[in-house]
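Handout, section 3.2

Students often ask what a structure token actually looks like in practice. Rather than define it abstractly, here is a full record for WYL domain-containing protein. The first block is the sequence as you would receive it.
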Amino acid sequence: MKGILYRAMEERKPVEIIYLSKRNSFTQRKILIKELRGSTILAYCLYRKQMRIFNLNHIMSILPEKKARQIS
């Protein structure tokens, strides 16, 4: 998982995560990673439109951003 995070941060590309909140609810977020700090991630959340701190232990799934398919 950290490999995907580091690559996304270096390439400045968003990733999609499934995150378990403190209230035990799942959310799907698209984030731009700014900094990895031990067991936390400082990232800009494209859903909330603000900087957020995410706990690595609460990330259930992570994928590179899905590209929209272009019809030619």
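Discussion prompt for tutorial groups: The chain has a mean pLDDT of 91. How would you have guessed this from the sequence alone?
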